[in-house]
Amino acid sequence: MKNVLVTTPVSEIHRSIRSFLDKDYRIDWTSDKDSGLEVFRKKRHELLFLDLDLLGVTSDRQDLDEYKNQFKPFLELFPAVQIVILSPPDRVRDAVDAVKAGACTFLSYPFKADEFKYVLERAHTAIRTQSELEYLRNSFWRTDVQEIVRTESPIMGKVYDQIKAVAPTRATILLLGETGTGKNLLAKLIHKQSNRAAKPFISVHCGAIPEGLVESELFGHEKGAFTGAIRKKLGKFEIAHGGTIFLDEIGTISASVQIKLLQVLQESTFQRVGGETTITTDVRVVAATNVILKEMADSGQFRRDLYYRLNVFPIHVPPLRDRIEDIPILVSVFLKNLNRYHLKNISEVHPHVLEAFSNYPWPGNIRELENVMERAYILETSPVLSPASFPVEIMGSVRCEPLAAADTSLKLSEVRRRAMEQAEMLYLSEVLKIHGGRINLTAKAAGITTRQLHKLMKRYHLHKEDYRNSRN
């Protein structure tokens, strides 16, 4: 059974359409666009017959964006819907403009049987094409990104369901979550699953750009706009035209940039810094933040109207400690990537390591896990990633027992050297943990100079930042 919505104030047109459609169609009728939208929200319709007179666009206005804005609410609810414009004979030119703006086709009334049949066949062809595209997207989801979206976590499963639902739409998305939870990867996934996949994906880390340059980076500048502007520069919103722009750490942008971003979201227009020309852009915005943006809006640190524009479809990305079921999957992916880019062939991870991973809180989330895996991979000398290759603060009380018999092919001096290096690395890691990564205190406790400590830390890939959370 196919669902059809007829939206027209003329009851005769509704009855005429009903007479042309057989019992395979379930037909709903509304007399105005708002009522039609309300019906559309409650039930999915594959076909929408929409009266041109209800669009509020007069014949002396040729701006296609006006039509696009009228179609937008329906398309956001169901992107695959096919819209057939119902037009009086004297407004065929306007109906053609509506088709250019995104409608499937148009019908002039009173209807003729052969014309109605042709239009219906054309609409069904478009519906089949959309279904095939949806099938291909689902196939892509199941195969090409299967490793990325594998999860054993019910919480993360819901996140992927949300992404799959919203990606094909035009809705603005706000990714909420702690640093290191993989928001950038999810933004790329959204872009790949959207109708904009063939267009650019531009990622901007707003917090990493000096405050005075964020506006220029996003919107570009004209030559001579400020000191050092020796030539015109295109902004990221121009470069991303037709595609997706990912704005990470959106809560760091200044008040002036917030105003310009609000203009882009509301009107799809902006001006370069120092410019007077208004530039139109068609960009899907995905933003991310590791702070509670609503609290910033409530306290006046962030524009409330911009917050609501960004928060159209919020997705909460869980921290790694709330999805420990996925740690073995992530470890497997990281290990496969490390083997691909390095000469070693480490086949597995010791069970004691995975046990310790499940008990560690992972304040740095997936990014910390990836970094820890890479450092251990570099240090490891056996085919298995052992507990001894990981920082003591992660392993905790896990036993660092030998994984296999000693390698008798080595000289005793080489076995001694390796054992000494491993003991040295574990000792330094523990002392760094005790002193919260503070170099001067660690060096003093170890009885060496800070210069010697820096050299040893570099040799063993130890980073003071990893030990700051252990300070008392």
Descriptive report:
The modification 4-aspartylphosphate is found at residue 51. Residues 3-124 form the Response regulatory domain. Keywords: ATP-binding, DNA-binding, Nucleotide-binding, Phosphoprotein, Transcription, Transcription regulation. Residues 149-378 form the Sigma-54 factor interaction domain. The chain is of the alpha/beta class. It folds into 4 domains: 2-139, Rossmann fold; 151-318, 3-Layer(aba) Sandwich (Rossmann fold); 325-395, Helicase, Ruva Protein, domain 3 (Orthogonal Bundle); 405-472, no CATH class. The protein is 47% helix and 13% strand. The chain is built from 20 helices and 16 strands. The chain has helices at residues 11-20, 33-42, 64-77, 92-100, 113-142, 146-149, 154-166, 183-192, 214-219, 236-239, 255-267, 293-298, 304-310, 327-341, 351-359, 365-379, 392-395, 412-434, 439-446, 450-459; strands spanning 2-7, 25-30, 47-51, 82-87, 105-108, 173-176, 201-205, 220-221, 233-234, 244-248, 269-270, 279-280, 284-289, 313-316, 348-349, 384-385. The strands form 5 sheets. Strands 2-1-3-4-5 form a 5-stranded parallel β-sheet, sandwiched between helices. Strands 7-10-13-6-14 form a 5-stranded parallel β-sheet. It has a two-stranded antiparallel ribbon with strand order 8-9. α11 packs across α13 (304-310), α14 (327-341) crosses α16 (365-379) and α18 packs across α19 (439-446). The protein starts with a strand and ends in a 13-residue tail after the last helix.
